[in-house]
Description:
Blueprint: H1 7-24, H2 28-34, H3 39-48, H4 66-79, H5 81-101, H6 104-114, E1 118-119, E2 122-123, E3 126-129, E4 145-148, E5 152-163, E6 170-176, E7 186-192, E8 198-203, E9 214-225, E10 229-230, H7 236-272, E11 274-275, E12 278-279, H8 284-312, H9 318-347, H10 354-364, H11 371-383
Parallel strand pairs: 3-6
Antiparallel strand pairs: 1-2, 4-5, 5-9, 6-7, 7-10, 8-9, 11-12
Acetoacetyl-coenzyme A binds next to helix 5, strand 5, helix 7 and helix 11.
Amino acid sequence: MELQFTEEQLMIKQAARDFAVTECLPGVIERDELQKFPREQVMKLADLGFMGMMVDPKYGGAGLDTVSYVLAMEEISKIDASTSVCMSVNNSLVCWGLEAYGTEEQKQKYLTHLAQGKKDGELYIGAFLLSEPEAGSDATSQRTTAEDKGDHYLLNGTKNWITNGGTASVYLAMAQTDVSKGSRGINTFIIEKNWPGVSVGAKENKLGIRGSDTHSILFNDVKVPKENRIGEDGFGFVFAMKTLNGGRIGIASQALGIASGAYERCIEYSKQRKAFGKEIMHHQIIQFKLADMATRIEAARLLCLGAAWEKDNNLDYTVSAAQAKVFASETAMWVTTEAVQIHGGYGYVKEYHVERMMRDAKITQIYEGTSEVQRMVISRSILK
Ligand code: CAA
């Protein structure tokens, strides 16, 4: 493994950095406060090709590798984790799954637009509908049902905490088709938001990533054509798990970005803020905190890049993605909490950004598999 980025990867990192500073930073505090979806930012990300980064150009994607995706996710998350989660879900949970397992017709009809993030000049993104009121970590306990009616399925149920729920045009939704078969009785369906029987529940009022658009989605006798099932009958749960493996690299990179963004702010602040007659960077207590932050962030970065490298080289990245996610998200929580501490009273108010980063960090320990689920994935692999 060569730990050297290509020119293209470095270019992507710089483009993401420039984008985050010029497009995401202005208004990030206000969007958080007002829970305003970053529509303009996402439209511009689409123009940059960042909504379908890893998709083959023949389906409208940018044809980049996962390492570039990690670099871009880190840079955008340093400044605006609400925008980056929207990007991550569309890239990893929607486009990747469709490209890997969709039929040619499904790819032509949906992926070509989702990968561009636009259709007919309008925002066109997707969402991933696995979680339910009673099926979070225990994802096999799906209550949403899809009854086989011959030429179509009839979907009924409720999905919870859906990122991009209100803005997405297309949903990849998991539902139970045969409860007696356990996880092999689950299928994944492509559902259009404007179909009869689909409704969007109230927007969640969240602790963090408040700019992102999180809703419940309700299905009431939704007719889903047979050709909108992804893969063979009964493949839906394994599809969700395989898709989430890549999603976990995206969220790990988001957590990495939140941590490194907070750390960069601490470096700046400690050079300016004076206490006891000198800049606080001259106090050993601050120096050691910064040293620990830098070390943990670098370790998280290497885990993210390692998992991405394995994915790019067609190796099994299930465990490395889980390790990257659990470590990066716990690093993000620790670094951002320390960042608030370093900033003292200033850290506790909105203008200094780090309190938002601390709130944003928390969700990275929860969504796309909690830290406990990641530990299940890792330990099952070690012990099998
Ligand atoms: N990769 C590939 N396949 C996997 C897998 C993985 N990581 N985890 C499980 N599988 C496969 C198993 O091999 C098995 O396949 P077979 O039928 O071929 O044997 C099948 O899936 C069932 O697996 P288990 O028996 O291990 O299932 P389980 O009920 O014990 O649960 C679990 C396993 C790991 C806990 C799983 O339920 C899980 O990952 N839960 C967390 C769900 C999750 O991440 N939710 C996130 C919601 S999406 C979200 O947050 C998006 C957003 O909006 C930001």
